[in-house]
Amino acid sequence: MSGFLGEFWGYLTSRSQQLIFDSTMHASAVAQSMLLAIVIAVAIGILVYRSERLTNIAVASTSTILTFPSFALLGLLIPFLGLGVRPTVTALVLYALLPIVRNTVVGLRGVDPAMTEAAQGIGMPRWRVLALVELPLAWPAILAGIRVSTQMTMGIAALAAFAAGPGLGNQILGGLNRIGATNAVSEALAGTLGVAILAILFDIVLIIIGRLTISRGIRV
After folding, report:
1. Is the Cβ–Cβ distance between 153 and 145 less than 8 Å?
2. Residue 96: partners with Cβ closer than 8 Å, 6 or more residues away
3. What's the 3-state SS for the chain?
4. Rounded Cα gap, residues 22 and 40, in angstroms
5. Backbone phi and psi for residue 29, each to the nearest 5 degrees, phi listed first
6. How many CB atoms lie within 10 A of CB 202?
7. What pLDDT sits at residue 1?
8. Which residues of the chain have pLDDT under 70?
9. Which residues, at least 6 apart from 154, have a Cβ–Cβ distance to it below 8 Å?
10. Which residue in 143, 56, 151, 152 sits closest to 107, CA to CA?
């Protein structure tokens, strides 16, 4: 192996421990952010899906967040949250909300009214109808939103390096800052490929979760 590939392979083998550490931190930041975003976004979806006006407000609010450039949002959060993990996770949670909120509303509104009426007809209280009938039937749409948000946050998390955040963004930023120097391109490429590999792995996990939790009759 010679040329750039040899240099790149040499970089990967010599920095393997650092790359594994950055990959672990990147995956951890995305996983934590997605867990928070799922709880918040599904709760918002449940609260607003019966009201067209509240749904429009929720979707417009979360859409507006997406219009903020990532650098600008991190810059706005730093004075309040400092550098590091907190502004990173906060920004990722905010960016992840829209697809999950929208798909939660779409999923819940798509439930056949006959199903909920039948559940209420046998004496189920409203919260049990929601938990045992509506949310399971809406789960395929919600999961689709979670997959979209996860892919988005995986890429955006790389920008957290500008706020001293954890993850593979440090590899990318470090390489770009030293462009022209030895191993600079290898460093940036290793970080970029690492983000892509993590995105694929996360999506595979979500596909498996979908296979395990969604019955064949309601898969989308």
Report:
1. no
2. 33, 34, 37, 41, 149, 150, 152, 153
3. CCHHHHHHHHHHHHCHHHHHHHHHHHHHHHHHHHHHHHHHHHHHHHHHCCCHHHHHHHHHHHHHHHCCCHHHHHHHHHHHHCCCHHHHHHHHHHHHHHHHHHHHHHHHHCCCHHHHHHHHHCCCCHHHHHHHHHHHHHHHHHHHHHHHHHHHHHHHHHHHHHHCCCCCHHHHHHHHHCCCCCCHHHHHHHHHHHHHHHHHHHHHHHHHHHHHHCCHHHCC
4. 27
5. -65, -45
6. 19
7. 60
8. 1-2, 217-220
9. 26, 30, 195, 198, 199, 202
10. 143
pLDDT digits 0-9 by tens, 57-97: 999 999 999 898 888 888 889 988 888 889 999 999 999 99
Q: Two tokens at 13? A: 């083998």
Structure tokens at 75: 């810059």
Token readout for 134 is 């509506």
- Give the pLDDT of residue 219: 62
C-alpha 87/C-alpha 163 separation (Å) is 7
